[in-house]
Batch of 3 targets.
Target 1
Amino acid sequence: GAVFFVQPKRELGSTKHKIMAGETLDDRISELPDSLLLQILSLLPTEEAFTTCILSKRWQYVWTSLDSFFFSPKRYWERTKGFRSFVDYVLSHSTASKFDKFELHCSSLYTHKSQISRWLTFAVKKNVQHVVIYSHPPYIMPQTFFTCSSLITLHIANGSLVSDIVIAWKSLKTIKLEGMAVVDAEINNLLSGCPALETIVFNSVGGFRRLEINSLNVKTLILEGYCVNNSGHTFEICAPYLQHLELSRDFQDFCCSLVDVSSVVNAKITFDIMCIKDFGDDYLDSDEEDEDSCSDYHENFKTLLQDYLQKLRHATELTFGTLFTQVLCILQFKEVPIPELECKYLALELHLEKFSLYGAAGLLQASRLVETLNITIENQPFDDSRCCFERKYLVKGDSIGLQRYISSFVFSNLKNVKIVIFSGVCMKEHLKKLFKLSNFLLKNTVVLEKFIIVSNRQRCEICGIKCMSRFLSPLAKKLGSSTDSVIIFQQHVYVSSVAKSDQDSDDDEEDSYGEDHEDSDDEEES
């Protein structure tokens, strides 16, 4: 097969720009039309945009036409009075007929709620379309804001919703709640007042027990973690018309049950959980009674993920994380059947350290229609706090080969494979595992067109050498000799200041070092 090596793409950390004699950057910018100047100023914190008024008469009143505002008291430290006076001054001198965006960080203004309400009411009168509010402790917004008909996107962090308040966000399409506790009644009230809502994002939001979304317009639900509360350890999602579902980050020990997601075509399940027990490093000394005490929890969770595969089997695009493949590893040891998946695009986000190739292979075996496979690999030290129940399977699965599937399993539709290796993964230690995975894919494909291996950093952060190119280049050559498909090895390198002489010496070492380890993979596969 053809093997291509793409030269590292160097992104310089700093560049120098020369300005011709007699020419100033200020002069060139000042010649721009007001519309473009306002677009530039809208990208700055409002305080910085305001200071441009001292540049020249040309700039004196440009800021008054701004329609996007970002107010944060960080630069004022504890001088909240100065910050409040500044916001009042800017809004009172605004000549914009309507506001595009209004972002307010008011965590230090909890004793000035009436003033905050006045600012939000002013934004509502200006038909604001996009609002971001950071507040702590939770701040209840004024009633006028809850009936803002011009609002399109809303992001509330550490805020508060009230179940008995009237919500009439008729134009709202996207809402993001962050670091909040909301109960079922508040969510139901929110959904009933947002008839045009399309996207819901919850970041570290908890308190609810059931997300029931029956709107035909809501197509996307993203849950980024689930915060601790006293509502119990389970919650449900019932969204029959949802098309995109994402469950990510830390769910702690909460179990999310999918009641109805029958219309989902794109799902990303990469969340992580914790065992209900918190063992220390001395896990090997745990007795059988300790192990059994959390076995029911793990058994229930395995059953839950089985149900995920069943409920998401008709999705065309699927992304799974390390936890999912590890649980599949355990299911296969117990000879539990995995439902056939209909996805054409499959992405796996894996930790190379102790991740189970056996579980990943089982998931691939259930995805016979897949055409595109993307695998991202990051280095994650094996969690010593895992209990015995988890460890005894993961350690066993990590050592099992994949060749047992070759005689009975074929990827009949797989055309494109891409493996992306992020910084922090040491190829010196993990080349054999990567070769196992790559060789398994190549030997079980029929119509494969392209196989890409991407390294996001040239010099390893662990061993201090260029182990990526030293090991991956020979790997690509070796894989290319066993297939007719095109194999591409790419490197993307960030360079701040590197001496060329140092690079040349490293490259010479790289050539000899890679050859010494090229034959070590055959022993692993035999």
Note: The CA atoms of residues 11 and 494 lie 5 Å apart.
Target 2
Amino acid sequence: MLGPTSFLTQLTLWVAAANAFVLFVPDDQCDPSGHCGPFTKTTRKHAGHSTRSNDEVVTFPLVARPRQVPNDRPEPFDRVALAIARVAQKFGNSPAVRARSGQDDKNYIPGNQYSISTPITPTSEGSTGIYQYGPDFSYFIRIELGSQKMPMYMLLDTGAANTWVMGTDCTEYACRLHDRFNTTASTSWKPEDGNVTISYGSGTVTGVLGREKMTLAGMTVDVPVSVADHTAEELRHYAFDGILGLAMSDSVTGTFMREIGLQNAFKPIVAVSMNRDSDGVNDGQVTFGGIDPAKYVGEIKYANVPDVEKKNGEWTIPLDSFSFDGKKADLSNKKAIIDTGTTYIFGSPADVAALFKLVPGSKLQVKPDYHEYTVPCDTKTAFKITFGGVIYDIPAKDWLAQVDDQCLSRIYGFIKLQSFKPGVWVMGDTFLKNVYSVFDGDNDNMRIGFANKAAPPKPTSTSNTGAAATGEDGLPVMPGSHSSGSATGDITSPETITPQTVSGGSKVGGITFTLAWALVAWAMMAV
């Protein structure tokens, strides 16, 4: 972890300075009503199958929000306040988070209503598919929690060890938009003394401590977990119901990677392959306890975690170089946190400025909390980054996004990062979706390996019989498609605003939809 943790004995309050999951949405991804979301140029068809080609730079903002009723009133739009609220919450102090009033409760349907991308079913042992909200905005897995086997989505977060889920005692706006775990309904829940407060900079997550049975990738383990009774309101912009901490560091919620080793459930190794939405098929996958040779080509090249970071349990490695068009940036003695819980790439303003000196036509835009760069929209050159003496590409389609008539970089310089170590970068999904990543904590060692990803499978469609492909959750969806419970997603572009109803849903909602149509068909045949 980047920041300290402390135990306040007299208050029995655990406090964690959370340094993973950079809760950040750039200003350009928010509309004037204050609703924020990731990017897409796509129009959706066939239950959300992408029509964007693999080489296009994404353009229009996608404002994907849960279903609303007419009485819902958007909050006043304050661009500066929103930017402050969405800076990397792992790096800073926590102002108070305003909760919605009880009057708002009846205006929202409880449960997770987000439109997500469902992965195809993995076949390798110890593996589970990675769901996506975005495109390419956040990556999470589906687990089952408690004796009732409550399905929940949990963000994969190698940047921190804190593990928590939203609980039914949390009645705030952000929680009501998600599935929440009921500890009283689980016979396997074991409460522990003390409460937890996890600081994310512009907000906090508080909850109770306990142990619970968690099933993931076909394995059931008894893990420490916090069940939240309060969450930062900014979490309404994200589809996951909790966070699975995958760092090796000490944590107020217990360290998952250590626990699975103590229980001999599987080795403390996590291998991650993130999909790119424009590739057309969501073949994202995480393997616990080993690697899947089918997900990469060539050889995995490892870089050891330095001694200081190893002692702290941080997935951080030396950054050898960062270059553009054959020219290296003036960066030396840098390190990089390899963070699956962060969407973009972040560095200090000075380091990011050194990088963009190499990009012809780049221009700095100074925001209240971060530095952003515009570049000519005909830029096609990849950044190249070197770890362990091996060069990896970050293509323009991943680090560049077109917004109206300008193109913005997804490599940011942060200003207000109070616990951000000098010379440290955060390498998020903008980089990671280009490689097969292995986080190896076995044999009392820590190392990170990268390899070239295997080519994704070709997009498929329904067969001649009309039978749809089956996703990992068992629901009929097209591979790479987006699905939700019963949500209505609003796809917003500078040209049109088209309401779109998404079917085939996550969890119970999709089953209800399927059964409803079956009953309609039966009634028609009966007539």
Note: The helical segments are 79-85, 173-176, 256-262, 307-312, 349-356, 396-399, 429-432, 507-526.
Target 3
Amino acid sequence: MIDPTRFCVHPVNGRACDNTEPTHSGGQLGHDFRPPAAQGEPQRPQLAVVPDDPNQEPPRRGLILRPASMIRIRPVRWLWDTTPEGAPPTSHGRIPLYSLAIAAGGPGLGKSQFAIWMTARITRGELPGELYGKPHAVIYAAAEDSWTYTIAPRLVAAGADMDLVFHVAVRDDEHPYARLTLPIDTSLLAQEAERYSVALLVMDPLLSYIDKGINDYRAAEVRAALEPLVAAADRHHFTILGLAHFTKAGAANPLNRLAGSGAFGQLLRSLIAFAKEEDEEGDERFVMSLEKNNLGRLGLPSHEYKIAPVTIETEEGPSYVSRFVLGPETTISVRQVMRDETAVGGVDKSERTEAMEWLEDYMTARDRAGIAEPKEVYSAARVARITDNALREAKRRLRIKSVKQKGVRDGGWFWQMPGFAAPDDQQPEM
């Protein structure tokens, strides 16, 4: 007799099935079941079992309910965990295992280099986290870069175990030029990931692998193509690192600037964003931030990083490539860099750069020698179509001071460029 209080303990991908015995009456009999609750234990809800009508065709679709008390609770485990010594365990987890993570940024910021860096660490068992000390395989799908001239040399430069990094191609007798496509090849990807104990699937860029028949401007269609892959990652125990681009315009919020953000929706567990900051001296540095962390803490420290040139030797001579170098923690975040770029008074980076170039030329002209009256500067800037906000931001960036003569009542203010001699008896603006 079918007992609705008994729950299946048959292992499915390393976990108990946990469905009730009545749900197995359609052909999955023979599994082991937990006995009913013992004396003194809380009784589980009783399910009414409706006997099958032998004359009625079994429904193709139905609902399965199980009480929350029968769902096993597990802690989050982390592929990449930067928790420092002395901090609570896993408190600095950045990429959870068996989930979808996105690395996003503008062009030329090192997103692919970061994916190579992570690939190398996983194949060597050197990535801090659950797999530290346990080398695993990686499937690397690159739609835009050459394996011969870019991917493979970068892997060598990063120190990857080349026997554990797999290029992926599609064999299709009917379509000789077939390429990896989602969701068509999702089940095949999952099978190979399990066969080779793959820990990470890199897709660079992720959206380029969506079936061409799917409108990538329709978030619901793209999400439907990605959902089976995310489910397969959880079921077959691999993590997905998808690379994505930022849109050229938008708010100073990395999530809003993420191309395809509507499609990723709640599928995305971790977003690592990349940006380049320029300080007031014109020096540049790269910044990497964790901008979304659904299963862990937000507000984790950002990191500086570098893209360092490397020369590797090949059978046909040297190959000049580069590699990602993770730097120290920094208080600057990608969100702050974006805010600065869209900055003061709505002045974007290109407008600010144009204003700085114009103001420097104006102030260093021979007849001014680094000194000018503000009214004259503003008037000339408007003629050059430089906005007041852009001019003020350029003044700040160029470190131009406002000064006036000492001891002169109602004396006017002047702008003074750094490195230029000021007129006698001038005092800086307080």
Note: Confidence is low (pLDDT under 50) at residues 425-430.
